Amino acid sequence: MGSTPNKSFQRTVKKRRFFRPLNLVANAISTQGEPMFRWERRLKDLAQILKQCEGNYFEPELFRMNTNQFLQTARTVTFIIQKHKAEIHGFEQWYKSNVVDAWASDELMSWAKDSRNAIEKEGDLDMYSSLSASLFFSYIEEDDLTIPCGHEELIGAGVKRLTRLARRVLPTAVSDGAVVKVERRWVANSLPEWELLHALTYIYVRHFECCRKLAQHLGGVICHTIRNPTDTHGLASESREIVYFKLNSPFAHKLRHTSVKLNRNISDASILKEITKRRRPPTSLDANVELFSEYAQAVFARDGYHIPILFAFDEDWRMVDFVPTKFADHADKYIFFRYIADRAADLRASSIIWVSEAWLRNTENFGTIPIRHLPVVGEGLEVLGMDKDGEIRKVTWMSCPTNFVFQRSRRTIEMAA
User: Fold this and answer.
1) Average pLDDT across the chain, whole number
2) Which CATH code is given to the segment(s) 7-126+194-227?
């Protein structure tokens, strides 16, 4: 397509929920026929480079090249936005609030900027790869035992060593849920606390956030053909090929995350739509827990069950992610919630809500046999909300042979720095 948009192109522009000024629209149209702002097109390029980083995680030279290219390209997204500031109403105030101030105290965004400058002036980003085996048997990472493995052939010995240790030291009730995780990590010398693919994913999320808010500032939504951050995190985790060995299973396990298109027109969603109409959009953790408690209770009453689902929200209470799941055993719960912790950090979620069924068990033999073997004496439904400051809200409905218990709780936990 030439530099002057034709009539067909202009009609396509008007199909969007808002009018995109043609001088801000890229000369090319996306494969789905939807026009993009010039910075959106660069963001889409960035998503493709991130995908290449994921695909080449175990190819050191290609991963190095892709990482350098990603950091250089990321910097140009905001350059392009600044180049067109004259066409963006209220640009100075918007840019200061959503980029300058928002990223000023973000260590990772500062690292991305400095790394790009170093790559262009000094050469490649210095980074290294490590292989390790870790034993975990709780939700708390500080309890983990990790063995670094300098060579590929040593990893088998590391797994066996941790497995023998767990079976010898841990009580049966604990070792039944214990897991040995084998993980390869790329780390930049200048950013030792972050696994590199996680860092790149986080940087992509922040640029996506910036472009989404700019589209909103201009009166609409970001181009839907651009890769969503929720898809990015799942693929990034799979690309690292993390392998889990459960002590209660002879097989190796991998976590897989599959995205499916949401059907917003299903007929049995009418009850949820009615609840949404009656309530104001939530602006606090309390209000959000109340809303999802009503959702959960309605679904449970209608269907007689509720699958486990985790919802994540940004600082404006906009849902940024939801992940349904199911657990085969207690080890799956440890794996899942550690994955969610990384996912929430990458997506910059400010709060989460967890909805699931709950079971009361007879604890007479607690500590001597696996929890999953304790007799079930009651069941119910639980809605738990938590924000990044450690505020927790919980609503529980429990049914026992003798009574039905409804509970609400509020508390704050001290968050690690």
Assistant:
1) 83
2) 1.20.120
Residue count of the chain: 417
Q: How far apart are CA 204 and CA 315, in angstroms?
A: 18
User: Would you give the distance in Å from CA 230 to the centre of its chain?
Assistant: 6
- Least confident stretch, 11-15, 162-166, 268-272, 406-410: 11-15
Which DSSP helix (H) or strand (E) runs through 44? helix 38-55
Instruction: Name the nearest CA neighbour of 312 among 285, 276, 281.
Output: 285
Closest CA to 223 of 18, 11, 4, 2: 18
Where are the domains positioned within the chain?
7-126+194-227, 127-188+228-254, 260-412
User: What are the beta bridge partners of residue 411?
Assistant: 392
- Residues 224 and 209: their CA atoms lie apart, in Å, by 13
Could you tell me which of 168, 157, 97 has the C-alpha nearest to residue 132? 157
d(CA 94, CA 214): 8
Q: How far apart are CA 374 and CA 361, in angstroms?
A: 6
Angle, in degrees to the nearest 10, between helices 229-239 and 38-55: 20
Decide if 206 contacts 314 (C-beta within 8 A): no
Q: Does pTM top 0.90 for this prediction?
A: no
DSSP code, position 98: I
